[in-house]
Amino acid sequence: YSLSSIKWWHLFEMKPRKRHVLLLQMFGMTAFLASYLDVFYHFHECCRPEWISFNRTALEADLESKLFGQHIASSIILKAVNGFMKNKYPKKPLVLSLHGSTGTGKNFVSKLIAENIYKEGMESRFVHVFTSTLHFPHPSQYLTYKSQLQQWIKGNVSKCERSMFIFDEMDKMHPDLIDSIKPHLEYYDKLDGVSYRKAIFIFLSNAGGDSITRTALNFWEDGRKREEMELKDLETMLTLAVFNNNQSGFFHASLIDKNLVDFFVPFLPLEYSHVVQCALAEMKARRRKPDWDVAVKLVKVVKDLVYFPKTERVFSVKGCKTIVSKLDYYT
Ligand SMILES: *[C@@H]1O[C@H](CO)[C@@H](O)[C@H](O)[C@H]1NC(C)=O
Ligand SMILES: *[C@@H]1O[C@H](CO)[C@@H](O)[C@H](O)[C@H]1NC(C)=O
Ligand SMILES: *[C@@H]1O[C@H](CO)[C@@H](O)[C@H](O)[C@H]1NC(C)=O
């Protein structure tokens, strides 16, 4: 039998072995067709511009319309990511360290960055998230984690140099584990034959959150506008707090003194009005029309959150973090 002359009923007349071989041939054909379609129509995500490209306008629009109360973070992120993605020959990978207390938008911003570079966003095969307490829970096993992590980073960047790695809860990570990432962040042309220069590393941590909050509170007490706050008002204090805090992994790791982190990005504590904006955005995402009834409930939900300082109630303790689950409950 040849493939072209075959009629479907022949399949039943054949000896099992022959049928098997023929079926294999036919499936071989489909596999070939599939890969053909893949190459020409890009059905599956691959490490190519059709799937990985950056659109500055879109990121800017997202930061403006979806991230609330973070004018400093917004502008640093936009400049940093745009500059890096435009550069065809970066000298080192982009390393961003996002700092701030819970619910201020650090995870959310990482998601926005991923969505504006990878068509598949956080679902992309080239975006990797490591959470300290989840992926590296036992401090005693850090030696195992260390080699595993280095293997993963190397393996993934070999497959696609435009890979993104997000490290959540960086302050809970074993210092030696942080040290093991370090070689990948350096100005090496190639390390073990792999170039990391187009990769993106994002570190998230609460470290320095307290000092950011204190600065924001001082501003508020002085009657100055939040929007007047600039990076330089926070930068020194932030690096000091992160560096001198022996609780945080950064302390031991020499990421900072070797200047491997390109940008320290502070996230300010959120005020009542920002949490309302978060709630409204969430309602919009759920395609719920904010009718009067819902609006009244919403205001109550946001008012009932915990704020500090206790008497003045300026900043939301959990930022926008709990608002989503609270909305589920009340509306
Ligand atoms: C970039 O994003 C903007 C806003 O989403 C869109 O209008 C524009 O067409 C995009 N540009 C490219 C080149 O994809
Ligand atoms: C890529 O990273 C993931 C973890 O996000 C890991 O499971 C996988 O083995 C890595 N791939 C390679 C080729 O190392
Ligand atoms: C951390 O720093 C504090 C204050 O500087 C000090 O009292 C404490 O002993 C330090 N802890 C460790 C483990 O070094």
From TrEMBL:
* Protein family (similarity comment): Belongs to the ClpA/ClpB family. Torsin subfamily.
GO (cellular component) term, any one: nuclear envelope
Q: Native species of this protein?
A: Anabas testudineus (Climbing perch)
- Primary localisation category: endoplasmic reticulum
Q: What residue intervals traverse the membrane?
A: 21-43
Protein name, UniProt field: Torsin
Tell me the keywords, alphabetical order.
ATP-binding, Endoplasmic reticulum, Glycoprotein, Membrane, Nucleotide-binding, Signal, Transmembrane, Transmembrane helix
Annotated positions binding ATP: G100, S101, T102, G103, T104, G105, K106, N107
Endpoints of the signal sequence:
none
Domain of life where this protein originates: Eukaryota
Task: Name all Torsin-1A C-terminal domain ranges.
Answer: 270-330
The compartments listed are: Endoplasmic reticulum lumen
InterPro entries assigned: ClpA/B, P-loop_NTPase, TOR1A_C, Torsin, Torsin_1/2
Give one GO term, molecular function aspect: ATP hydrolysis activity
The answer to whether the entry has keyword Lipoprotein is: no
What single Pfam family name could you report for this chain, choosing any that match?
Answer: Torsin
Any single biological process term in GO: nuclear membrane organization
